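Section 5: illustrative case.
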């Protein structure tokens, strides 16, 4: 069996799972608005996802290490996704939506990380680039955002569960053909986490990038509502995500060419500067077209920021603690930042509107960029990094 064949189910899984992910990320805020929730309440629901992920990621990661399988855990999570999403979309009151949402997200949030982990390990086994496998996730995301946006504009946001279940079923079917990887590492121990948290450069770096990741996550949550505030349709929300994700896919796919050239922190700083500029311009926008035309910056900001931070953190942590370190990184980047971004963003968009929200995100990103620049100049950022290279 050739390499490319054995990777097809994995690529299909990433494609289908990220297609379901788009539907939740792009349209859930609009769907909740349709259900009668205001911005603050939508913020609560969107904060449940990252909150659940902080518990779900370590739990499922631990189960995967303990039972030495990634494939089986992905299957369990996808079955959970299908069952709980049906219930989640039946709920009508805020409390019921929040409680069911927590259970739904408990199964959904680890799938992306487990899929990436499987892709990373398979890429190493076969000697291919991780980006070429992970790229299929971005393609699934982009395709789904365009097509589903158009469909929902025509039939109505209330039917978003149907395409969601369709892609979810595809994801489940292809998992049966997946090649599992031998998980060599032992389950993550709590002492590993405390070991990592004792590393000063690691903790300070995570704190500083949170200024950027909070703005990134707030944009994830509220760009759909903001485009609607500016007069755009579900279809335009889909186009905005499409443009963003296509550039993200290009950045991931070409990372091999440009990424080695400088220290990863230089790329984090560049991404930070672009984030600040991007949010300030979004805040001043008065039509959805202005947002869409600048969405190509999504790939340059998020793609560069994510790759560079992930790379820097991987070099900062000893080999044995890699998977734990990555989990702590995910929990901060997507979890904690997501909670803060959703709660604050919801309250601000409710009280002052989207323009103010984006202006304040610009200020936050600017502060983060300055802090990371100082961190890069400061001796301990360099020392930790050099020290790690010698291991």
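Designed sequence:
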């Amino acid at each position: 069996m050739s390499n490319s064949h054995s990777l097809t189910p994995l690529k299909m899984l990433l494609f289908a799972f990220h297609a379901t992910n788009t539907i939740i990320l792009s349209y859930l805020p609009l769907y909740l608005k349709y259900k009668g929730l205001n911005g603050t309440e939508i913020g609560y629901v969107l904060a449940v996802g990252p909150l659940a992920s902080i518990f779900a990621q370590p739990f499922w990661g631990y189960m995967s290490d303990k039972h030495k399988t990634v494939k089986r855990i992905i299957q369990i999570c996808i079955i959970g996704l299908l069952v709980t999403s049906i219930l989640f979309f039946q709920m009508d009151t805020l409390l019921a939506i929040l409680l069911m949402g927590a259970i739904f997200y408990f199964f959904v949030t680890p799938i992306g990380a487990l899929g990436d982990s499987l892709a990373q390990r398979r890429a190493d086994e076969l000697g291919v680039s991780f980006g070429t496998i992970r790229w299929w996730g971005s393609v699934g995301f982009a395709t789904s955002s365009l097509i589903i946006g158009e469909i929902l504009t025509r039939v109505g946001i209330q039917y978003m569960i149907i395409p969601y279940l369709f892609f979810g079923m595809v994801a489940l079917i292809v998992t049966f053909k997946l090649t599992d990887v031998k998980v060599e590492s032992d389950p993550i121990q709590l002492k590993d986490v405390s070991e990592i948290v004792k590393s000063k450069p690691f903790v300070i770096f995570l704190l500083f990038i949170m200024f950027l990741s909070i703005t990134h996550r707030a944009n994830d949550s509220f760009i759909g509502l903001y485009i609607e505030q500016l007069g755009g349709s579900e279809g335009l929300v889909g186009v905005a995500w499409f443009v963003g994700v296509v550039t993200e896919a290009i950045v991931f796919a070409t990372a091999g060419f440009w990424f080695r050239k400088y220290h990863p922190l230089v790329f984090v700083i560049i991404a930070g500067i672009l984030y600040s500029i991007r949010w300030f311009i979004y805040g001043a926008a008065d039509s959805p077209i202005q947002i869409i035309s600048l969405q190509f910056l999504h790939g340059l900001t998020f793609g560069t920021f994510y790759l560079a931070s992930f790379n820097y953190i991987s070099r900062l942590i000893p080999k044995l603690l890699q998977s734990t370190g990555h989990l702590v990184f995910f929990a901060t980047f997507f979890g904690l930042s997501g909670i803060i971004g959703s709660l604050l963003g919801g309250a601000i968009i409710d009280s002052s509107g989207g323009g103010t929200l984006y202006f304040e995100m610009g200020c936050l990103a600017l502060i983060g960029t300055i802090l990371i620049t100082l961190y890069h100049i400061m001796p301990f950022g360099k020392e930790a990094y050099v020290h790690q290279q010698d291991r």
